[in-house]
């Protein structure tokens, strides 16, 4: 049985960061249904290497993320693979909420008056975590929004779709390289909820083996085989 390295719960409007080691699983559970987890990925050895949403989507001919997909860096390497997913649709095109957008939708609720119940936003959350590693606004990229589904109309308009939100939904990521992870639990920028969502996320870091040659994530797209080969070379020769 795989050993749990660490587990905790995070309420809404919070942010955190950590370096997740190669082969470790990061397991996220939407305990209440309707949560959103914004996430960014960086190579801790070279912070200029970061998550690339366009390459992730076009390499796998998809608009959404779900089980079997890999998340790419801008250097053609795979940060992590989605090994389990009971939600089925995760957004990586809509970006972040901002202080202004949160205030317009939910009202201004700063820390000075609301303390931990403040209306925090995704952009400021990422900036706080990025600053801990010497990064700034220019170092942010398009992020993943776990547990958030969006729909695209025929005219191209994107809207939030709450139909997949279920308590207990799980997504598990297997990391293929050491990765700096920034995350927040602020609302999705298109979430139409009338009040600031108050949802809880459980996350677990679990030990696990590397991907095998017949791993579903490796075989789900031709480009993924090349991405795994890039990872093999990276670890074999220390190429940066």
Task: Give a structural overview.
- The chain is α+β, with helices and mostly antiparallel strands and 240 residues long.
- The chain has one domain (4-237).
- The chain contains six helices and 13 strands.
- The protein has helices at 53-59, 99-106, 111-114, 122-131, 216-219, 222-237, and strands at residues 4-11, 15-20, 25-30, 37-43, 46-50, 70-72, 78-85, 144-146, 149-152, 158-161, 169-175, 179-184, 200-206.
- A six-stranded antiparallel β-sheet has the order 1-13-3-11-7-6. Strands 2, 4, 5, 8 and 12 form a five-stranded antiparallel β-sheet that branches. Strands 9-10 form a two-stranded antiparallel ribbon.
- The longest helix has 16 residues, at 222-237.
- It is globular.
- 39% of the residues are buried.
- The mean pLDDT is 96.
């Amino acid at each position: 049985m795989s050993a749990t390295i660490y587990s905790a719960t995070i309420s809404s409007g919070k942010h955190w960061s950590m370096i997740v080691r190669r082969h470790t699983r990061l397991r996220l559970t939407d305990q209440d249904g309707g949560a959103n987890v914004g996430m960014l990925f960086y190579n801790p050895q070279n912070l200029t290497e970061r998550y690339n949403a366009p390459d992730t989507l076009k390499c796998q001919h998809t608009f959404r993320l779900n089980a079997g997909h890999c998340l790419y860096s801008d250097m053609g390497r795979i940060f992590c693979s989605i090994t389990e997913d009971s939600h089925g649709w995760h957004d990586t095109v809509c970006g972040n909420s901002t202080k202004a957008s949160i205030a317009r939708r939910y009202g201004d609720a700063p820390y000075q008056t609301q303390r931990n119940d403040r209306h925090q936003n995704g952009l400021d959350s990422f900036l706080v975590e990025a600053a801990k590693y010497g990064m700034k606004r220019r170092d942010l990229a398009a992020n993943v929004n776990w547990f958030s589904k969006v729909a695209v109309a025929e005219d191209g308009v994107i809207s939030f779709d709450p139909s997949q939100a279920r308590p207990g939904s799980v997504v598990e990521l297997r990391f293929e390289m050491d990765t700096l992870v920034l995350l927040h639990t602020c609302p999705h920028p298109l979430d139409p909820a009338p009040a600031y969502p108050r949802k809880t996320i459980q996350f677990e870091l679990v030990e696990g083996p590397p991907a095998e040659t017949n791993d579903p994530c490796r075989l789900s797209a031709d480009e993924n085989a090349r991405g795994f080969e890039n990872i093999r070379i990276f670890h074999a020769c220390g190429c940066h």
